[in-house]
Design goal:
2 copies of one chain form a homodimer.
Chain A: H1 16-23, H2 27-35, H3 44-57, H4 63-70, E1 75-79, H5 87-102, E2 106-110, H6 117-126, E3 131-135, H7 142-150, E4 155-160, E5 168-171, H8 174-187, E6 192-198, H9 204-219, E7 225-231, H10 235-248, E8 252-255, H11 258-270, E9 280-284, H12 288-292, E10 298-304, H13 307-319, E11 327-329, E12 331-336
Helix pairs in contact in A: 1-2, 1-3, 5-13, 6-7, 8-9, 10-11
Chain A binds a DNA duplex through α2 and α4.
Chain lengths: 341, 341
DNA sequence: TTGAAAGCGGTACCAC
DNA sequence: GTGGTACCGCTTTCAA
């Protein structure tokens, strides 16, 4: 490492006052120049002097101070439980992040707080975000919404399976996913259908609605039955589970997502069952893994509302925080038929 | 939705002054009570009155104001290029987030700004984070570090393939990954080795070091050669790529990660080649898909330094910002031998 | 045991 | 054209 860069150990950073002094003007003028406020009310000569001084000193405005004065932080808080591990979420978050950033907001991701409801909401509220978008996070309940409103946060949006009283809602109808899968299984002649729910409890928020959609769909057909089965992404456990399937002679399977479906398919094959001949399998989320396995997985894909649109919606609501709560659907589902069912 | 909660459209939120008024004390006293400052210097009666007033009003402290006054924001800024860098990253981020949160920090994830170097750093600096942790983000260069230091941010850490002058470094030695893979391929008798680099340029920061490690390892063995091959996660492209492998008669393959390896294995099999007999394949990152594919993938797994340790390190550095820059390794690599090589 | 008041760094109104 | 100054909400000395 040749370069040294003097290891400047961060003295007191320059403030707008330092810039003012260096340029021989007032703090007010510095503010005007640096923010391009007041069209031509500052002479070009002064402007140049101010800008030069700022550059010299390495001045960077203090967003915290600005936020305090402005009464708005420019922060959009995204709350999410542990589900953040999923590939879909990561992708969505990245896009939302970037869309918000283009609109001048800072996206802050707030993971599990170890609290729920009002208690969690107090944590969020301390940051005084301009909006809270709660993604599949069941710690946002009615009390939480109330705390946020009372803390002056006008825009609260829940994105999840069900709306929350007092908040705008992006309804992600996970129920549809399960329904669509089971309808297809029934359509291809399957009657004894297993539904795989992840053992990982942090995924229950998604999993249970998918299950209940599956159950509802089955009820529509007299001879179809659905049985709930837990599975973890562990091959040992999967082998054991496969025995169960052999015993119960299930002929159809809907798995929580393509990862679980893949593990399941492997285990079934290892147990001597053929997919789809003996057991037809439908996954969900259209993940890469489903296209690589043989047979290729039939899956229910979800198309989320583009992050850009959601960012725009947040921006709009922040501009008009008294808009009555609205609810809209947040994803569309579609069946992708491949080889496994 | 029965309950109404008055849809309170966020009037002016209560401040500590409101609480003071309601409790019949001064703002100072409110602050003391709510922060448990000054051991027993406030009477129990007063404390109770203050707490009750705060509860009544739904008071939530204003973190922005607090940060301004305190001179530290409690924010740890994580910068990352494309967050999409894979499932490993998402997992790591979630853990770090939670570890920091336990230490009282707020983790803010800042995606690509559309700027690099000093310009990007100015964006980050505006938030006055207590620390900046730059994850595999090549927009952090020497100038950026300088901007951050001048803005009073004492703790700047780069986590990536190479250290950056002036910043602490968590060195993730991706080079080792490639080296380890190729050494194994050579050890099992392969000489003509293809290395798959993702076509997705956002992954280059990881991919190139892995490739160069592969090249170095090959040079250590006189008869071994390495040839770089681009591939995207698209089956059409993969089929075409497989033709190339058939022609060139490569007998070993190291793919960027297990996803790429899986796509590659599929394409090879579809082209009539046997794995590992004709072509031995090594992947990386030990992803789920590698265990589900047949043959099971041999892979190079990476064990990152636990997020908890990194959070602790950041906390320590924030407490002593003048610590001379230190560098430490950030991951350990290990070969997981399965069936594909 | 409690309160008055001086800031933290910016912004924007109003005066000159 | 430019500058003085009163805030934003909170913490923390110092004095009472």
């Amino acid at each position: 490492m040749a370069s040294m860069s003097a290891q400047s150990p961060a003295g007191t950073p320059p403030t707008s006052e330092d810039v003012a002094r260096a340029a021989g003007v007032s703090r007010a003028t510095v503010s005007y120049v640096l923010n391009n406020t007041r069209g031509g009310r500052v002479s070009e000569a002064t402007r140049e002097r101010v800008r030069e001084a700022a550059r010299q000193l390495g001045y960077v405005p203090h967003a915290v101070a600005r936020a305090l004065r402005a009464g708005r932080s420019g922060v959009v808080l995204l709350t999410a439980p542990a589900v953040t591990a999923g590939p879909l979420f990561a992708q969505f978050f990245a896009e939302l992040q970037s869309a918000l950033s283009e609109l001048g907001y800072t996206a802050v991701l707030y993971g599990p707080t170890g609290h729920r409801g009002a208690e969690a909401a107090r944590r969020w509220a301390e940051l005084r975000p301009d909006a809270v978008l709660s993604l599949m996070d069941d710690s946002l309940d009615e009390h939480a919404v109330d705390v946020l409103h009372r803390a002056g946060i006008g825009v609260v949006v829940s994105a999840g399976p069900a709306p929350v009283a007092g908040a705008h809602a992006l309804v992600a109808d996970q129920v549809q996913v399960g329904a669509m899968a089971v309808e297809h299984l029934v359509a291809v002649g399957r009657r004894k259908i297993g539904v795989i729910v992840p053992a990982d409890v942090s995924l229950r928020g998604f999993a249970e609605p998918r299950l209940s959609g599956a159950e509802t769909a089955a009820r529509a057909h007299p001879s179809a039955t659905v049985v709930r089965q837990e599975l973890s992404l562990d091959e040992g456990a999967a082998a054991q589970w496969a025995e169960l399937v052999v015993e119960t002679r299930a002929d159809g399977l809907f798995a929580y997502n393509d990862e679980y479906a893949s593990v399941a398919v492997r285990a079934l094959q290892d147990a001597g069952l053929r997919v789809p001949e003996d057991v037809a399998v439908v996954g969900a989320d259209d993940l890469l893994i489903g296209r690589l396995l043989r047979p290729k997985l039939t899956t229910v894909r979800m198309d989320f509302t583009p992050a850009r649109e959601i960012a725009a919606m947040l921006d709009r609501l922040i501009g008009a925080p008294d808009t009555p709560t609205e609810a809209r659907s947040y994803l569309r589902t579609g069946l992708v038929i491949r080889e496994s069912a």
